[in-house]
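Journal club side-thread
Mid-discussion, someone asked how the predicted structure for our own chain would compare to the paper's figures. Pasting it here so we can look after the session.
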Amino acid sequence: MPFNKLLPGFKGLSRALMHKDHTTYQHSARVEKLAQALGEAVALEVDDLAALRMVACLHDIGKIGIPDTILNKPTKLDANDWKLMHTHSEKGEDIILSLELYHCDIIATAVRHHHEYFDGTGYPDKLNGDDIHYFARIISIVDSYDAMTFSRPYEKARTHTETMDVMHAEEGIKSDPYLFTKFARLIEHNSLKAD
């Protein structure tokens, strides 16, 4: 069964996140749109685009397992908070694998690794370069953009220019240079470009 047949079911699962944390659910919906745009820009096939959209809509599903006191903390997270927050990608992998659906291991792997850095300093497995699943490298970029351009309880939104300055500085460190170059071009004409 191709991924595009499974997409509605995976999107249904993302509604569980909506009931836990509406802000994260909205973030995931925007990340899905940006991921699709970047996937199209790098000429992914239809089935791969559907799989990428599943990763995008479920990339933060593991936050269901993060306490509300951390998700909604009105001040900056401390080291212990971040340690627990960093477990959300592994929790997400576990949730997706439990579905036991067609090739859900691909989706689960990309969810687990969407916070890996291109230079190997990310988490949870310290992967680098091409060892990071292609979908995870796409999600990393679009997730970063959306996270910085929308306010969170502990951090104010940045402008598009401020965000792109940070992301340009992280190119080759956090992000795949090829994918970031594609993203930097497309975001200038995308409806989700921040003001």
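Post-session note: The domain at 3-187 is CATH 1.10.3210.10 (Hypothetical protein af1432).
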